[in-house]
Amino acid sequence: MAEDLIINRDLSKESQYESLLPQIKALVSTEEDLIANLANVSAALKEQFNWFWVGFYLVKGEELVLGPFQGPVACTRIAKGRGVCGSSWEKKQAIIVPDVDKFPGHIACASASKSEIVIPLLKNERVVGVLDVDSEVLDKFDEVDLNYLIKIIDLIDFKNII
Q1: What is the mean pLDDT of the chain?
Q2: N or C: more exposed end of the chain, with fewer CB within 10 A?
């Protein structure tokens, strides 16, 4: 079944998120497959905000492995503690990076990326993956993005992850 989003980039950032939240909820609440839901969430966020890169990495053994995403080709595997994604996994906390070139150990999957936000995906107090969003604009992300992206992550059912 084809899904269409109502996209309006002329709204404030908060209003854009408020418009997108029920649409994402509708998408993920009718689908049980985690990968399909992660793919649609990536696409919805990319479509609404036109960010450089939006996607998920999933924990597989001792690495984060690239999952569904929208944007240019990305790093496939990231070790725990490496870069922004690996650091978010290790610390079990979100990280907002205004300038990726100033983040110690940043992994430059794409040189066009200038700022980043990474939020861990938690299931039973364990990190099962991360949501990674990159922008080609410095200092793009803030607490508004963090709060709403957490609300979006909370809509996703991670029951299929071991």
Answers
A1: 93
A2: N
46-61 tens-digit pLDDT? 999 999 999 999 999 9
pLDDT at 1: 41
d(CA 9, CA 17): 10
Please give the Cα distance from 98 to 137 (Å, whole number): 9
The predicted structure's pLDDT at residue 112: 82
Identity of the residue numbered 98: P
Query: Alpha-carbon dihedral of residues 70, 107, 145, 71, nearest 10 degrees?
Result: -10
Task: State the pLDDT at residue 162.
Answer: 55
User: Quick one: which H or E segment has residue 137?
Assistant: none
* Burial (0-12, 13-18, 19+ Cβ within 10 Å), 55: buried
**Residue-range domain boundaries for the chain:** 13-154
CATH topology for 13-154 is: Beta-Lactamase (3.30.450)
